[in-house]
Amino acid sequence: MSFNLIGTGMYVPEKIVTNRELSLLVDTSDEWISQRVGVLERHVCTTETAADLGYKAAINALKNCNCKLEDLNLIIAATVSCETVSPSLACMIQKKLGATCTAYDINAACSGFLFLLETAAGYYARKKVNKVLIVGAERMSRILDWDDRDTCCIFGDGAGAAILSTGENYLDSTFTVKGGDDIINIPQFSGKSPFYEGETQEPYIQMNGQETFKFAVNAICDDITLLMERNNLKENDITYVIAHQANKRIIDYAARRLKFDDEKFYMNIERYGNTSSASIPIALDELNRQGKIKKGDLLILTAFGGGLANASCLLKW
Ligand code: UT7
User: Fold this and answer.
1) For the chain, how many structural domains are there in total?
2) Same domain, yes or no: 163 and 178
């Protein structure tokens, strides 16, 4: 037994920051960001926290499938940018919702939503749950160095959520981790211990863009090829590929290498930037609400990022 994904929700903060506005902060241009990354604008928190965003996305997901709060058996959340390490993001969402079920976080950076699905699948396999809420929520603007043009132009804030229910529609998945901190690194606050003599780092995201780019294209292509071969699928069998929205060129390259029609890859990076663990559930919610996915459609979700971790799954709608 696995699960069906029965409801989706998203939320982004109201404030929009355009590329032109960023060009007043750092040495960049609308032309560079739109051509090299594909982002035109991103939403940025002014007062809300990651937990606020996650809570609002969760409410929208619950409403989307008329799921009652008291029916939830588990809340799991993924984040790299939540304001607190403890309470976890999931615990804060649980409190804001007024839910009583157990709740905890996982951290798999931009691949977090895929790891949430797989974690939930274990509970379903053991028949421990009926309804599960999963949430990816990020206030990436909190962990960006706003003087660093290499990173501050790429990311955005937002949250996406999904409700799972008993079923058989989580068909296959693949997970790959190559541990290391030399390509993407998000240090925590270094602390103030008078005894610590090790290196300290600023708590902002650092990334080797070109190495991440190559890793991302390979990860998408390898994962999709594996899932397609293992399940005897052709491109026409797949309604949409929902890839982590990190760079439009990553998705274009991957589509070309896989010989997939560009249209098969859903794209919304132009409006949100890279929202890390929230990017896939936000895209899923947009497709769902626009009525672009129908019962029985096959979707591939594919993500990559810090860890390094990449993960993909085959899902029937
Ligand atoms: O979600 C986590 C996963 N993250 C990703 O998947 C990100 C993957 N990487 C990328 O998306 C791209 O590598 C970046 C968008 C980060 C960078 O694009 P790039 O085409 O790889 O640029 P680059 O790092 O090779 O830099 C090219 C030039 C450099 O100038 P020089 O050395 O050629 O003079 C950079 O300094 O572009 C410069 N540059 C910028 N120029 C204007 C870097 N950032 C900017 C900027 N505006 N914001």
Assistant:
1) 2
2) no
